[in-house]
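Section 5.1 Outputs to date
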Amino acid sequence: MKKAILMIALVLLATTSMAQVIGLPIATTASSQPLGTVAASGGIVLGDDLNLYGGRISFSPVDILAIFGDLGLIDPDEGKTGFAAQGGGLLTLPIRDLPVDVGLRATAAYAAFDIPGGDLTMNTLNAGVLVSRDLNHISPYVFLGLNFADVTAKSHGYKATEDETDLALAAGLIVKLTTDFALYGEMAHVDNLFVAVGARWIH
């Protein structure tokens, strides 16, 4: 019993910060897109306690709104490779007098993986403001928001939960290689430092 409780406590300490990364990466600008725009991206998020591998599909039902869904794998240090999914939206604000684009971004995410004697699940909510500017072939962006994480661990018949809310900061750069294809790089800090790289196709 003591061993199971200690194991759960150690796993929760190691993985509460993991859950903060599920809302990442931003990997887009705040600019509006034409009605019907479809974008696909794929990449990796690297952290001290885990790596994430996945892809994203985004669709713009109207020019100021993009909705997206992510699907991927979470590879933690404390546990086996598991499953991660996320859904969210980006609303471009109709502000004309600024030299930058401003948007509101929100996501809800879920991830789960096996630990010795049981499993661990993570639920996160991430919301904030995205600011970007398109400069010919490059588009820098910054994000500021909050991230709420709920982590539940079960092992050998015992259960423990942990909640945490943190400031979410991210800054990245999208480099357009063609009109349809781009690469991105991003650094973020949500309780821990994370780095993301990937590619994006838009049509």
